[in-house]
Write a structure and sequence with these properties.
mainly alpha, 0% strand
C-alpha cells in the first residue's frame, strides 16, 4: 500500500472513531432528554418545588450540550461537515439564552428539550450514514490492496 493510500485510510479511520465518539455522546444526551420530557409533561407550572428540581436537571443538560459543541469542533478539524450537526452546534447558544443559574419555565424547558430530542435523532441518522460511507471506502481500499475481511460490508 502506498503512502497516499495509507494516509487516506488513517484519515477515514480517525473520522470514524470521532463519529463513533460523537454518536455516543448524542445517544447519552437523547437518553437523558426523553425521560426529562416525560417528567415535564407530568408537572404543572404551579408546583415550584418540582420546577426547581427540573431546572437542576436541565442545567446538566445544558452542560452536556456545551460539551457536544466542543466535540463538534473536533469534527470540523477532521473536515467532517454534517448539516444537522453543524446546524445544531450553531443554534445551541441560542437555545440557552438565560444566564447560568436563572430558572427556565416549564414551557421553555419543554420547547428546548423537544428540539434537542428531535435534532439528536436527525444527527444520529446522518452520522450513521457518514460512518457507513467511510466504512465502505475503508473496505474498498483494503479489497483493492488485497486485504479482505470476512463479515464486513
Amino acid at each position: 500500500m502506498d503512502k497516499e493510500t495509507q494516509k487516506e485510510l488513517t484519515l477515514l479511520e480517525e473520522k470514524n472513531a470521532r463519529i463513533f465518539q460523537v454518536m455516543g455522546s448524542l445517544k447519552l444526551l437523547n437518553h437523558q432528554v426523553k425521560p426529562f420530557v416525560k417528567r415535564l409533561e407530568a408537572i404543572s407550572e404551579e408546583d415550584a418545588f418540582a420546577c426547581a428540581a427540573l431546572n437542576e436537571s436541565f442545567q446538566t443538560m445544558i452542560h452536556d450540550v456545551r460539551f457536544f459543541k466542543a466535540e463538534h469542533k473536533s469534527l470540523i478539524k477532521l473536515g467532517l461537515h454534517i448539516p444537522s450537526v453543524d446546524q445544531f452546534a450553531q443554534n445551541a447558544d441560542r437555545l440557552f439564552q438565560k444566564k447560568a443559574g436563572e430558572a427556565y419555565t416549564i414551557l421553555e424547558m419543554r420547547r428546548i428539550s423537544v428540539y434537542i430530542y428531535r435534532m439528536a435523532d436527525a444527527m444520529l441518522t446522518q452520522l450513521s450514514a457518514e460512518k457507513n460511507a467511510n466504512e465502505t471506502r475503508i473496505h474498498a481500499i483494503h479489497a483493492k490492496n488485497g486485504k479482505y475481511y470476512f463479515n464486513r460490508k
